[in-house]
Amino acid sequence: MINNTLIKKESFFVIIIFFFSLLINQYYGNRGVFPADSFSHFDTGFRILLGEYPFKNYWVVSGPLLDYLQAILFYLFGVTWQVYLLHASLFNAFLSIATFVFLRSFKLNIYYSLIYSLLFSILAYPVSGTPFVDHHSAFFSLLAVYSLILAIKTEKKLYWLLLPFLLGFAFFSKQVPSSYVAISFILILSIYTVINEKYFWIKYIFISSSIFILIIFLFGKNQGIELSAFLDQYIFYPQSIGSDRFHRFVFTFSGVVGHFKFIYIALIPLIYINFKKIIINKNYFLEKDFYYFLILILFTFSLIFHQILTRNQTFIFFLIPILFAYSHVSISLSRHNLTNMLNIFLVLICIFAVTKYHLRFNEGRKFHELNNVNFELALNAKKIDDKLKGLKWITPTFNKNPDEEIILINEIKNYLIADNRNKMVMTNYSFFSSILKKKFFSTTRWHIFDGTDYPQKNNKYFVKYKNLLINSIENNNIEIIYTIKPVKSSNIYDYIKENCFNEKTITKILSSYELKECEEINN
Predict the structure, then answer these.
(1) pLDDT tens across 165-179, in order?
(2) pTM score, two decimals?
């Protein structure tokens, strides 16, 4: 009877977590946009439905899995902004439920498990609101962390079989931090195997990895994606970006320590308890608790390292409730006289930290550079198209006058409708293909101008991207290219000579480049 009551309560709490996690992301995802990031998988998800694929038709440095997942959702539910947000919202809900289940597997009090899971959901995907490569990579890696811990805890083959798939999904979301996490897993499993003399898991990992690689190979072949294109764009080119960032890295106390202080605070109880056990118990390295600790520690520092190296807006504060929750688990297992007081203290600090970052990143939308924006000026993006209905349109560039930006966008929309020629559109407003239901053949997902999106001059993969661009123009009989600011003429002229085009400024942010007879293109 008691078990049935507990199961019903857990089921009820799972429902609460699901709807809370889904709705909070849906709400904050509608709160303003940073075009380059917010729309990064909107058009590409739709383009897959039109038969255009990553690596083959557009240069992809990260996130092909997100494009395909978005394509599935668009196919099932229609091409709208709310369905786009649903991608991230469902992910947020699933992760939060997985966190609840994970905590309950360690017998953490059901109410505490609920609180920590809800706090996690607040700082997980709502920070972005829209599908984002770093988030997906980190969150699939987190699911892999849960799977590895439960694999060691229960020794069930299901968790071992899941591990390569979860790490693979993380990698095809973004190469890092998933690669750092994978390396840490190899290190941990090597220690675990040698010390504990347990080798049974190797066959499950081998079988699952082989199946995953075979599926990826067959899928790529079916999509007509060449292995060389995948290797150039997804493996080799990102290494050239990463090495530059590593060499430019400068250690500062505020950047490495101060910025992540609440993550470190959440780690303190966990580190103290485990180091104490290491000192007291010389055989602690044989115990499973040691490996749980090692997995969480290395995962945390993998994400911190990734965050510092990429120098993007911070998104890893979701670690705070996870680490506080597992510190809570460790304290409860220690059965100290002050356990209840310590646990309440942990929850209160966690609530304070989550509230702090919720106000900064969710309410203030700092991740999307909207922290100084007056959201009362935001307008319903339905004014652009019904597919964007519900989005409160305001961007960092036009934060004082979003109505002007909408007018400019609608002018572009009408101009593209009126032009019946085969055209390429280069823009960070990556929704024109979706709302107009046309192919615009862009050879990149976004324009960041720092080389993290596609190769620029002096990069050894420059010629590869240039060939992709020229082939796209030739194969699709492109007659005119449109650029929308901040995209500029150099994004064309760096790859194709200026004398191949007749350039024309159309509006404040729209320019056209009509192709002429040109040996460089017609070869």
Answers:
(1) 999 999 999 999 999
(2) 0.95
